[in-house]
Write a structure and sequence with these properties.
Strand order of the largest sheet: 1-4-3-2-5-6
Structural class: alpha/beta
Bound molecules: adenosine monophosphate
CATH class of the largest domain: Alpha Beta
Order of helices and strands: EHEHEHHEHHHEHEHHEEE
Distance between the termini: 35 Å
Strand content: 15-25%
Helix content: 40-55%
Shape: globular
Number of helices: 10
CATH superfamily of the largest domain: HUPs
Radius of gyration: 19 Å
Largest sheet: 6 strands, parallel
Number of domains: 2
Length: about 270
């Protein structure tokens, strides 16, 4: 695996992106990331993984500081997976050139955009930069971060004429979604998170027969969850898969959740 830290070296190394798939990450490589790499491998001959913990998408300094990082271990895993290229730039390298700034409109300020001010502006900013540098036409992203996927499709797919391959969420025992942030959880909280996942999966299941009725009582479920597990739920909402509007239960929809446990913010959708 070639480990590349500068744009200059990257351009020297990769002249033709036709057969290269791109998997952007913030590291802490787990089975969710691996599934994206495998999806790329199945379609392309080569894969470039980026690891960059982007400061501009963290709306809290402390969250950025404590985000789990372990580049050595990541390199070990990626080498074992036979990934061809790893791009690990520093912040100066990514932000050294001028690029467009993004601003979300009011109608996009839902779910995480409502609770993490500036987060998606930061995500769009860094993805715009990464995609300017890495000219792959195939991007692999997870449905775990559904709103991120939605906004990148909306704002960047046309500009870069890139195909965004959405990959399903990988879970531990079909339950809690894998996430680098899980590493910050105490054992006890991980167990709680797993119970919360079962609870939410059950609500989604019930919604198939009693959608509207259930949607009206979601605030009660939210309160129950908060009390039972001593967590703070930011949102619990059924939204349309295509446009992220509140679901009318006629089209495909998902149950979206974000909550704080142990001072760690987890998101998921079912
Ligand atoms: P992150 O390193 O958390 O920024 O994630 C990098 C990419 O991996 C994003 O496209 C995520 O949506 C995706 N990803 C993270 N967790 C999972 C998961 N459990 N299953 C599938 N994809 C995931």
């Amino acid at each position: 695996m070639k480990i590349i830290t500068s744009i200059f070296d990257l351009n020297k190394e990769i002249k033709d992106y036709k057969n290269v798939g791109f998997v952007p990450t913030m590291g802490g490589i787990h089975a969710g990331h691996k599934s994206l790499i495998k999806a790329s491998r199945n379609k392309k001959r080569k894969t470039i993984v980026s690891i960059f913990v982007n400061p501009t998408q963290f709306n809290k300094k402390d969250d950025f500081k404590k985000y789990p990082r372990n580049l050595k271990k990541d390199i070990y895993i990626l080498k074992k997976l036979k990934v061809e290229y790893l791009f690990t730039p520093n912040t100066r390298e990514i932000y050294k050139f001028k690029a467009k700034k993004f601003k979300l409109k009011k109608k996009d300020k839902i779910l995480c955009a409502k609770f993490r001010s500036g987060h998606f502006e930061g995500v769009l900013n860094v993805m715009n930069r990464l995609m300017t540098i890495i000219k792959s036409k195939d991007l692999y992203m997870g449905e775990k971060d559904y709103q991120q996927l939605y906004l990148i499709k909306k704002f960047l797919s046309k500009k870069f004429k890139v195909r965004i391959n959405a990959c399903p969420t990988i879970r531990i025992n079909r339950n809690i979604a894998l996430s680098t942030r899980n590493k910050l959880l105490k054992k006890d909280s991980l167990k709680k998170a797993s119970k919360i996942a079962s609870y939410l999966k059950n609500i989604k299941y019930k919604s198939k027969s009693q959608g509207h009725k259930l949607a009206l009582s979601l605030h009660t479920y939210k309160k129950k969850l908060e009390k039972k597990y001593n967590i703070k739920v930011d949102y619990l909402e059924f939204r349309d898969e295509k446009n992220l509007k509140l679901s009318n239960f006629k089209n495909k929809y998902r149950l979206f959740v974000a909550y704080n446990i142990d001072n760690v913010r987890l998101i998921d959708n079912y």
